[in-house]
Amino acid sequence: MQPISDHLLLKAIRKESIDRTPLWIMRQAGRYLPEYIDLKNKSGGFMNLVNNPDLACQITLQPLERFSLDSAIIFSDILVVADMLGIQLSFEENKGPIFDKTIKTEKSLNEMKRDYDISEVRYVFDAIEQTKKELSGKIPLIGFIGSPWTVTTYLIEGNSSKVFENVKKMISEERILVNDILTEITEVSIRYINQQIKSGVDAVMIFDTWGGLLQDNDFYELSVKYVEKIKNSLTDSNIPVIYYIREPKNKINTLNKMDVDVIGIDSTIGLGEFRKATNNKFAVQGNLDKDTLKLSEKEIHEAVEQLFEEYDFNTGHIFNLGTGITPDIDPSKVSILIDAVKEISPKFNRKVKNAEV
After folding, report:
1. Exposed, middle or buried, 216 (CB in 10 Å: 0-12/13-18/19+)?
2. What is the mean pLDDT of residues 52-80?
3. How far apart, in whole angstroms, are the C-alpha atoms of residue 40 and residue 43?
4. In terms of Cα–Cα distance, which of 151, 158, 26 is closest to 105?
5. In what side-by-side order are the strands of the sheet with 72-73?
6. Boundaries of every domain in the chain
7. Average pLDDT of the chain?
8. How far apart are the first and last CA of the chain?
9. Distance, CA of 94 to CA of 104 (rounded, Å)
10. CATH: 3.30.70.20, 3.40.50.11220, 3.40.630.40, 3.20.20.210. Which one for 29-66+71-210+218-232?
11. How much is the pLDDT for 355?
């Protein structure tokens, strides 16, 4: 068996020569799969799955039993760090995450637990260790966290907001407090992701889901600055880091200054446009529109071909969706997508670009 470092995904991250483009799908383990829904219903809900290492491992592996994917990503949630803060997280059907308390004042910040005991999320590390054993080095396992900014938006709002009224008000009126919260979440995140690395993940992903809310200098000061602190605090400097951001088009100058291996992008910018704008500095992950999976087989093939033509380079690309797969997707369409990527990508990976390295 080849060393995990020689796996297709990790070679693409290093922009080495590859025979075809690797593929995995954000939220590939979960809500669109009937076997996941069945297990969730039997277990009594989402949090019971996340908190049980055996079940989390089982769900992580479910899509790999159906599809020929090039990476697993541990089944968990970016908000489980709340357990380390003494804040209770729950999920309500059709509503999403809800916290039993929020952090909107200096008093509520001071009342937060500060020992940041990583044993509070031992269930995540146990799931990682168990999954690594099951994978037996066949494909890499990705661990992940939310960016401090994205996690902070949830802790301020107390739920999955669409308008972020409290967050926007606090940025305007209580900037110091916002930075204090971000500092604490960064410290928690550093401990959490380093323990994921110790537990065996082969790459880490930082989801800055709500980084798109921030513009210009705010994007750096409230988000990227804290992501950089996490990156610089990793105990294994060789671990690949994937940073995911929505709406990156007006953030190129700031993104170009980042020290990460991969930037994952949504469908609001073309792959090739982004690659060229960042001077091929990063490997790029993405960015097929999730709704493409609702189209016909022919249309899916055409969309895949168009995406590769737009990327127009022979390595440094991890094929993925621009956002997480949604519950309304037919799993058979995922099979069509995977077959299309494996059929189409090799001709692009064979192309030699004399003008680029």
Report:
1. exposed
2. 98
3. 5
4. 158
5. 72-73, 141-146, 203-208, 241-245, 262-265, 283-288, 317-321
6. 1-22+266-357, 29-66+71-210+218-232
7. 94
8. 29
9. 25
10. 3.20.20.210
11. 37
Tell me, what's the pLDDT at 92? 83
Tokens encoding 336? 């069509």
Read off the pLDDT band of 354 (50, 70, 90).
very low
Using alpha carbons, select from 84, 85, 40, 30 the residue that is nearest to residue 61.
30
Task: Give the residue among 28, 23, 73 at the shortest CA–CA distance from 341.
Answer: 23
Query: Please, what is the angle between helix 225-232 and helix 148-157, to 10°?
Result: 120
Contacts (Cβ under 8 Å, ≥6 apart) of 130:
53, 54, 57
pLDDT confidence bin for 353, thresholds 50/70/90: very low
pLDDT at 34 over 50: yes
**Confidence (pLDDT) at 352:** 52
Structural element, H or E, at residue 306: helix 297-311
Please tell me the distance from the alpha carbon of residue 168 to that of residue 146, in angstroms, as a whole number: 19
Cβ–Cβ under 8 Å, residues 265 and 283: no
Q: How confident is the model at residue 356 (pLDDT cuts 50, 70, 90)?
A: very low
Contact in structure between 82 and 145 (CB atoms under 8 Å): no
The C-alpha atoms of residue 79 and residue 279 are separated, in whole angstroms, by 33
- Confirm if 337 and 303 have CB atoms less than 8 A apart: no
74 has a pLDDT exceeding 70: yes
Does residue 246 carry a pLDDT above 60? Answer: yes
Name residues whose C-beta falls within 8 Å of residue 153's C-beta, 6 or more positions apart in sequence: 161, 164, 167, 210, 213
List residues bridging with 143 in a β-sheet. 204
